[in-house]
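User: Hey, quick favor. My workstation is busy. Could you predict this chain's structure for me?
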Amino acid sequence: MEIVTVPCLADNYAFLVHDTATGATAVIDVPDETPVEAELSRRGWNLTDILITHHHADHIDGVEALRQAAVAQVTGARADAHRLPRLDRAVAGGDSFRLGQAEVRVIEVPGHTVGHVAYHIPAANAVFTADSLMALGCGRLFEGTPAQMWESLCRLAALPPGTLVCSGHEYTSANARFALTIEPANPDLAARAERVAAARREGRPTVPSTLAEELATNPFLRAGLPSVKAALGMAGAPDVEVFAEIRRRKDRF
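Assistant: No problem, here it is.
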């Protein structure tokens, strides 16, 4: 399986996943069809699938144009079908389907929106999380609750540590600055912040990351750690309350 990160709009990412054995190719989210079409053309790939993570315009605005340009099946959350482009395949958490020879597993990740889903492709060693788990962050809680997002993050955190986390935005620099206010003495975080800064100076994406990196540095995944609770003056507090406090601080950052 090949994965290609496609920059779109000002700070969005789409992802192409290509099964080299069968030629099947999926795009995960389509903020803008133009760069996706250009990358497909450059590689000589024919699009077979469009996978939608959630209903926000900056993730779906190019879907219809891309559907018209390719014979591609559109997949999205059954719970959000009323506010997504027309779906050929409606899915829910626990469902799976095939992309060429590869299995795609659907994970429900409400929080940013209530109908958000992620797509885990074990054969590609990758999970496509959009605005749920992000590089050094997580999405704002526009519709869901802290409890929902915390449960979603825990579900993603249970995947193999080497899993690539393909998230939907280039927010990592700002997320790193915030993360350092939570754990200023975390050496893994300090080193990652330097790598992120260097990548951005050179115009390179900071996405995807690995789940291992996120577990070591992402404050939203680390809300259950005693050291993080102590740093926030919340020793002994329930994990979800600590997560909620970190999310509140990020919203004000």
